[in-house]
Amino acid sequence: MKKTSLLLFLFLSLMTAQAQTYGDEGPTLTPNTMGLVYEDAINENLPGKVNIQRVNYQIDGIEVVANVYTPAGYDAQGSYAAIIVAHPNGGSKDQVAGLYAQKLAEAGFITIAFDARYQGESGGMPRRTDKPANRIGDIMGAIDYIQQYPGVDPDRIGAFGICGGGGYTFAAAQTDKRIKAVGTLSLFNTGDVRRNGYMRTQTSDIMERQKEASLARQKEAAGGEPELAGFMNWTPEEARKIKVDLYRDGYFYYGVTHKTPNAPGTYLKSSLMDMMAWDATDHADLIDQPLLIIAGEIADSRYMSEEAFAKANRTADKELFIVPGATHIRTYFVKEYVEQITEKIQKFYTDKLDKQ
Fold this sequence. Notes:
The chain is 33% helix and 18% strand. The chain contains 11 helices and 10 strands.
């Protein structure tokens, strides 16, 4: 694989909200009236079932669009624990974040899955800005909103992040102690990867790439067309030959089986200025909350979960759960993996967010 390919995060420009099947790479999904592109997604709100409500709120003057999931038998006068679910880099609330938000709501939690600002259906200009401070602020802003939602107990809030959202959730928990339980799935340390390359394959040209990002910002400031990163124009045949599972599986998940116009998969190249100078684990020793880190057994991203787990040395209540046989992306949709992960997170948040 070319060196430049390793810098890119492999997500395609996506055109429709209906997922399709390509060979045996993923499931066939039927059109969903709510725009959700994951298996067994809610298609209509029914009495006695988990329901979904589209909500809007603001963070620093920018509109956020989110989905709130309420459990079966929801009572606005009740008392519920709530869980924030942060989507992957290049993803949206309608994909894996919505899947696990729904699964957690089935266990009795109120959950919220949101589109990051500058991305998806949320506001913010310029579009596709992708900076760690913004993503961490999105998580904290979701807490601001959900703690006031009818029935939510503000003293029982958890956070669950997937892929890049896992790295940002891990970082948010270092300072936001409203988060009483922290979970990550297939954690992706955006700063480390953008700086050092995936699996540390680009440490020799860090300064060169920083200069490219700086020039991209200079071009934007002068009124030029923003430069984008993250797009991979592969064919399915080419994608199948890729040895890196995150890229290979990511092609089919984001570009074929679970694609949505809310996740175009590209970001502003100028954002690399911020991402390359950041790391999700810099202050991992500030996490003192219960911590659950989940990774696929054969995921080539597993090293990031293991490093984050090791660095979170202040909390004695932590667990690294390895999903047998799973790659990074396949923890998002393969039924046997989703079932194991669902069982694990439902029990984790039930135990840790139980009323004391």
